[in-house]
Description:
Layout: H1 2-60, H2 66-71, E1 75-76, E2 81-82, H3 85-116, H4 120-134, H5 137-155, H6 163-187, H7 191-199, H8 204-233, H9 236-241, H10 259-266, H11 275-303
Antiparallel strand pairs: 1-2
Amino acid sequence: MEWIEREQAAKDRLVINKKSSSVKKERRGKAVILGTALLIILATIAITLFLVSKGLQSFVVNGVSPIEFISSTEWSPSNEKFGALPFIFGSFAVTVLSALIAAPLGIGAAIFMTEIAPSWGQRILQPVVELLVGIPSVVYGFIGLTVVVPFIRENVGGQGFGLLAGTVVLSIMILPTITSISTDAMRSLPGGLRESSYAVGATRWQTIYRVLVPAASPVLLTAVVLGMARAFGEALAVQMVIGNSRDIASSLVESTGTLTTIITLNIGHTTFGSLDNNVLWSLGLILLIMSYVFIIIIRYLSSRRKI
């Protein structure tokens, strides 16, 4: 009997050691996850506070009028004139126009891959979309500079540099984002929707535009907004083709500038803490505010998702 009691005691100690080891591993895992989450939150708060403090210095320290800053069209740092309206207009114009082109193409490609030709269509289009995602923005800009700009100059008019060239380049850049998210949205729809539609006699096209697209519309809109967010913050590729002027473009073939292009062009030529430098930080603050606006829109659209 004694050896049986010893064996049982050894088994109990082994079970206790295993439980203790599992508890320690679980605590370490929770600590690592909590640490990474706190790091991301702190980094976001730190970046936001830093950009807000730097962006407000031109108004608080240097006395630049916020109303004049966002409403004036004159940008002349040598005369201390800082009207950011042409760059704000340029950013919104090129973003909206590129979304108008890329959204129907991306959603159409997603419908083709999931509903029209789910087998061979996905095998062909999916690698193409992934390839477009991996291409660096400087390559897009270089292609736009050597192909799109000369094409517009010879066939449309103007110098080739302008809103149209920037729109074409950005449309291609945000197309993979819209296509990928739209494809996931269409693919995640319950199969019962399609079967119910076919059961009442609807055709494939009627099923797509009357049942599937409305059901996935919140996520499809989220895809478009995410594409617009990327377009609004893109700098290098747009800078290479948009012309970088300080005026509001009166047509698609006239050159203009965006918030990102004016920052990247001038930030290296200013002294940290000077008026010119602080004004560029204020432009960055506008970009940050717009990023938060895009996030709020995306969160709102996600909350409307019913399926």
